[in-house]
Amino acid sequence: MSAPGTRHAVLFIFFNRADCAERSFAAIRAARPARLYLATDAPRPQVPDDEARCRQTRALVERMVDWPCEVRRDFAGENLGATRRIESALTWLFREEECALVFEEDCVPDATFFPFCDELLERYAGEPKVGLISGCQFVPGGWAGREAASYSFARLTQIWGWASWRRAWAHHDPTMQDWPAARRSGLLKKIFPAYYPHRRYWRRRFDACHRGDLAVWDYRWTFGRWLHDQVGIVPAQNLVSYIGFRDDALHTRGPHPAAALPTKAMTFPLKHPASLAADPRLDDATARILFYEGGYFPWLEYQWKKNILLRP
């Protein structure tokens, strides 16, 4: 098995949830990256307890940096909001690094996610078709991918613990200026040829992002990667637990089938897929669990069809 830790830089983005930050950063601390990037937003002036909570979280993270490493900090002087803060932090990171791992304060990685990313960041560094390495696998029990590989390629790759390259982040455009033309050209039908509700979900989100009604940075970047025909890497089993579904979250509140999923250690050496082609079955399963309108019905329908979806 690969040695514990990571050979690549790590960006940790945090805000005001010290309990989440402590759990997530403990895993980063155990990996002991040689280059550590810390980014946080300023307190929201309209939220009375933000200043104290932000101060507490910053102090906690600073105390936990107790190994020899180069630390760079980007602490906002005024509140930018989640999307602007994350986008600016990522632009700062990839200006300095060719590739890196990224965690927000509510993403808790398994120790094996670090060597998993190390190997794949180097393996696909020169492959422009691969845009993202995700730590998330939402299918209960894992995903039976092609050739029993350690990971699959997919169009839908979540950013609750991930890694990428400067060349991929370069496709991110906050204005999504190319969306109207891509909409007319049938981009979403190419991504989801078989199931209209998936196309409808993303068309509505991309429309709202383009109008400026919805400020969600990962939707914007998803569009950029799809526009450039990129796929992402999804591990066969879940390597990052997202603990952010709670009442003080910005977007992810209430119960959800993707909340606080357990992790399972990756086995090494990795078994690589023979092809870079996205697995449409995995995209369909992920869409039904995470990117779907209509509450729990799609999840229940997915549970019923799971054996069919997972059939090789």
Protein described:
The protein has helices at 18-31, 50-64, 82-96, 113-123, 166-169, 179-185, 187-191, 196-211, 217-227, 280-290, 297-309; strands at 9-14, 35-40, 70-75, 99-104, 107-109, 130-134, 151-154, 162-165, 231-235, 240-242. It has a single domain (9-171, 230-309), classed as Spore Coat Polysaccharide Biosynthesis Protein SpsA, Chain A (Alpha-Beta Complex), CATH 3.90.550. The strands form 2 sheets. The chain has an 8-stranded mixed beta sheet with strand order 3-2-1-4-8-6-9-7, with helices on both faces. A two-stranded antiparallel sheet has the order 5-10. The radius of gyration is 19 Å and the shape is globular. Residues 295-300 and 304-312 have low confidence and may be disordered. Helix 1 (18-31) packs parallel to helix 2 (50-64) and helix 10 (280-290) packs antiparallel against helix 11 (297-309). With 312 residues, it is of the alpha/beta class.
Overall geometry comes to globular
How does CATH name the architecture?
A: Alpha-Beta Complex
Q: What is the name of the CATH topology?
A: Spore Coat Polysaccharide Biosynthesis Protein SpsA, Chain A
Q: How many strands in all? A: 10
State the order of secondary-structure elements, H for helix, E for strand.
EHEHEHEEHEEEHHHHHEEHH
CATH class descriptor = Alpha Beta
Quote the beta fraction. 15-25%
User: What gap, in angstroms, lies between the N and C termini?
Assistant: 28 Å
Give the spatial strand order of the biggest sheet.
3-2-1-4-8-6-9-7
Helix and strand content put the structural class at: alpha/beta
- Provide the CATH superfamily: Spore Coat Polysaccharide Biosynthesis Protein SpsA, Chain A
- The pLDDT mean sits at 90
SS field, number of helical segments: 11
Give a quick account of the main beta sheet: strands, pairing sense, barrel closure: 8 strands, mixed
- How large is the radius of gyration? 19 Å
Number of discrete domains? 1
Model regions low in confidence, pLDDT < 50 over at least 5 residues: 295-300, 304-312
Helix coverage percent of residues?
Answer: 25-40%
